[in-house]
Structure formats: structure tokens, C-alpha cells
Design a protein that fits this description.
- This protein has 302 residues and is of the alpha+beta class.
- It has two domains: 4-165, Jelly Rolls; 171-275, Arc Repressor Mutant, subunit A, CATH 1.10.10.60.
- The protein has twelve helices and twelve strands.
- Strands 1, 3, 6, 8 and 9 form a five-stranded antiparallel sheet that branches. It has a three-stranded antiparallel sheet with strand order 5-4-7, with no helix packed on it.
- Helix 2 (116-134) packs antiparallel against helix 3 (140-160), helix 8 packs across helix 10 (253-264) and helix 9 crosses helix 10 (253-264).
- It is globular and about 60 Å long.
Amino acid sequence: MTSNRDLSWDREIDVVFRVMVRQQLPCAATRGWIMQPFPVLIWNIHGCGETTYRDPCLGRVPRPENSVAYIMANEVRQSATYSPDGLDYLMVSYSFEYRGGFNLLNFYELPNVLPENVQQALREAMERLEQSENATICDTTMRAVQRKLCGYALLDALLRCAKRRQDGAPQWRRLQPVVEYLNDHFAEPIAVETLIAMTPYSRAHFFRLFQTQLHSTPVAYIQRLRVRAAAIRLLHSADSVAAVGAAVGWQDAFYFSKIFKQLTGMSPLAYRKNRGDELGMGEGKVGDEGRDMDIEVSSGGM
């Protein structure tokens, strides 16, 4: 029998497309220590190499030709290429989100080397995504649907070999009450001290952990929730810009318009006009975030 708790997950899980990049690396190329703020999947289409993780528990992992690797968010690593003709690879990044912020796969343990049947399912989904992204699709709704379908196919494949964590209350889980509170009360005035009090952490540790787990400050996270809610209201109501801003927590219409434009690239009125024929917010274009996906890490430590 399906429990009510299981049913609630249906409404709380989302996949968000971040970036897709096809690249080539020359033979023997070794990149410096890097990390990415979102989980990534890397398919070695032609060529082989290896990944060395800074975490000694993960160590050094060979990456043979045609293999697919899952790299957790914020995992510090460096890669080397050994094939004479270099390495041709496809990198795909999605956020697998629970309750609008947490990485869903933090609830699970995945093997360092994925089973072959899982890798095959990932290859098929990544190939479909690449074909879709390279196709000439004028309908932005269709493109968004294709991205969602491929994202859920990737998540489904990963969950086939995932094991639910039984490790008590790791740091990221202790932030869950904060995220749930923000998701439910983002339109209300919120004091940072209230959020910190929900955790056992100091102010500095709280901010550092929030940034690591949610790739955002608390203020920026609230802004994202408010803008997302405002975008839906703009498309599905006739409320004025001021009324929309007030409904999501901004009483100052000018400030609301300023933040909305910062996060979406257009004013609320322009968003309503330009997106009125679409079913949802856009999630970027191929390569939009590619320049910012790799973050170099100094050798002296995090």
C-alpha cells in the first residue's frame, strides 16, 4: 500500500535542466582541481581517462570508453585523458530537487562506478537530450517538455542502483526544516535568526552549509521562490504588477520589478507579454551556464 508520505513526494520532486556541453580534450590533458555547483553526468563517448577525487574515500577511478559517471555536486576532482586521439565527452547537468531546493540524491547512496544497465539507460537518455537540443525546435514549451522527460529518465536510471541512506541526521538533513519553512512562508517577513534557530549551527556554519547545499544564500533562495511564484501569477492572473509583488512578499513595486528583472532578464510586464503564450518559466539555453559550471579550486584546500 502506498503511504500518504510516499504520495507527497510526487508533488515535491522536480528536475531542472542546467546545461549540456559536448567537448574534446587532447591526450594526456590533466585539468586542475575543479568542482561544479550541480550534479553532472559525464559520458566518455570516445576515449578514456580517469578521475581523481580529493576525497580519499573516493580515490582514483578509471573512466573507460563509453562509460557514464555521476559526479555529485561540489565534489572536488581532477581528470586526465589517456587516449591517443583525446577524449570526446558529453556532460549533462540537472538539479534533481526535493521541496524546491535540496538535491534529492542526497537521500541516497550511489556506487562510485555505476552498473552497466544503469549506464546504458543514462546513455540513451543523454543521447535523446543531445538530439533534442541540437534539433531546430521553435516551440519553447516542447523544448521544456523534452528536457523534463530526459531529466526524469536520468533520475529514474540513477535510482535503480541507489540505496536509501540510513545515516541518521547528516548536516544537509538538519537544514530540511529551514527549507520547508522557507518554501511555505517565503511571502512573509523572515528573520535570519529564526532560520538559524531551527538548526544546531552557529551563524557562520549555517550560512556556509546553506551555501554548500543549496548553492545560494538564504536571501537569494527566498528571492528565487518569490520570483517563481510571481512568474506564475503574472501568467495566470490579471493582477497588477504591484499586486503580484505584494502577494509574494514585496510591498515595494519598484523593488519587486528590480529583483524580478535581475533574475529573469526582463521586467514583470515584459515577462507577462513575452511568456503569455508559454506554459512555464524558461530554464536557459544550451551552454548558457557552461562557462560557469566548472569552478577552479585552489590546491591549498577548500
